[in-house]
Amino acid sequence: MKNRKAFSRRSFISHSLRAGAWASLLSARSVFGTRDISMTAREGKLSASRLRSLSLRELSEKKVHHAGGRFWNPFTPHEGRNIWRLLYWKLFSKNKFESFYPEERVRPVRVDWRAVRKHAGCSVTFLKHACVMIKDIDKYLLVDPVFDGLFWIKDFTPLEFGIKEMPQPDHVLLTHGHFDHMDTDSLSVLKNNIHVITPLGYGGVFKDLEIKNRTQLDWFDSYRDERLQIMLLPCNHWTMRNPLVGPNRSLWGSFLIKCKSGINIYIAGDTAYFDRFKELGEVTPIDLAIFNLGAYEPRWFMARSHVNPEETARAFSELNARHLLIVHWGTFRLGDEPVHFPPRDIALEMKKRGLLDHLIHLDHGRTLHYDGSGNPSII
Fold it and tell me: What is the model's pLDDT at position 78?
């Protein structure tokens, strides 16, 4: 067995630099410090008990998540994490899933774009990682586009079609700034006249892009395009682009899409579990809840950033949505669990709760169509 504790100086520096990149992808709040900005933000604002008494709308209206040039997460205030914790996970902690890695397979993604264009109503196509293409009658919405590989991380779902074959999106929705969700290389290959919708901030990201048509939303803000409505909602997460300046310089969120076709779609984005999903489900009836399920192991490191299968099933139940679809799996192994485990694990959890009939499994490249009565089918 390889001795994971035997490092040369060069190896340690190399792994430390990689850890900085991992920090921007995952759960290290502050690579070069451990100061808890949530505690600073809470001072002079609201006590923890008072926060719990506020509805999500009240919390958002009071701008409790704004913190003097930064944002903070009012749902899971906790200590900052640092590079040493990250290095311990990546280099020294025991990985109980390694024996399953040989089962992982590269599965190239093909999409029948002709069928997608032909369908007249609402459809959802799963591309890769957390990226989906939503068609709403004559409008196309692209969520968190990542078309190629990510740093040194193996890509298990390479696209086998050119981006020009894909319908060009009218709106691109970005949930937060982590590099596996806000990828400038992927954004740069789209047409410059697309409209991008982001949470507040990210001016530095778009400064060097030729995309100038951008709408920034705070929690519970909405953008309308005729009868299509896109609302940003709170979620239990954080964001960071540059470890040197630290986390939460920009906002993060989930999206609620009220389609012209009458279908309501909830995009959870990256989120940890929190006790507000029932409230989110009361905003409007939800036909399809799309949850990011992947990078959830080990729990001691991931629990405050990403839901696991049990929490996803619980959140879906509290959301009271009609159907559940999971993404954020199968493309990059960002956690300890193998890339093919999430569909299996969520099916087991949904079965335990008697909700298996509400789970929709969509392979990469496949499309979920809704008919005129709002009933889904897969092509």
Answer: 55
Q: Is residue 127 part of a domain?
A: yes
Neighbours of 256 (CB within 10 A): 20
Give the three-state DSSP class for 359.
strand
- Are 98 and 144 within one domain? no
pTM greater than 0.85 (yes/no):
yes
Is residue 71 situated within a structural domain?
A: yes
Other C-beta atoms lying within 10 Å of the C-beta of residue 69? 8
Same-domain check for residues 314 and 282: yes
Summarize pLDDT for 154-182 with one digit per residue, the tens. Answer: 999 999 999 999 999 999 999 999 999 99
Q: What confidence tier does 9 reach under pLDDT thresholds 50, 70, 90?
A: very low
Question: For position 123, what pLDDT does the model report?
Answer: 98
Cβ 140 vs Cβ 228: under 8 Å: no
Place of tokens 């399809």: 288
Say whether pLDDT at 82 is over 80.
no
Domain finish residue from 102, 130, 153: 102
Distances (CA, A) of 130 to 96, 101, 210: 25, 21, 24
Tens of pLDDT, residues 91-104:
767 889 899 999 99
Nearest to 297 by CA among 94, 103, 153: 94
Q: Answer whether residue 1 is part of any domain.
A: no
User: 258 near 225, Cβ under 8 Å?
Assistant: no
70 plus 98 within the same structural domain: yes
Q: Is residue 4 part of a domain?
A: no
Q: What are phi and psi for residue 231, nearest 5 degrees?
A: -115, 135
- Note the pLDDT tens digit of each residue in 334-351: 999 999 999 999 999 999
> 129 lies in which domain range?
103-378
Average pLDDT for 360-371: 98
Sign, Cα dihedral of 214, 331, 327, 52: negative
| pLDDT computed for residue 133 by the predictor | 99
Which of 73, 102, 131 terminates a domain? The answer is: 102
163 and 203 in one domain?
yes
- What is the number of structural domains in the chain? 2
3-state helix, strand, coil in the chain (%, to 5): 30, 20, 55
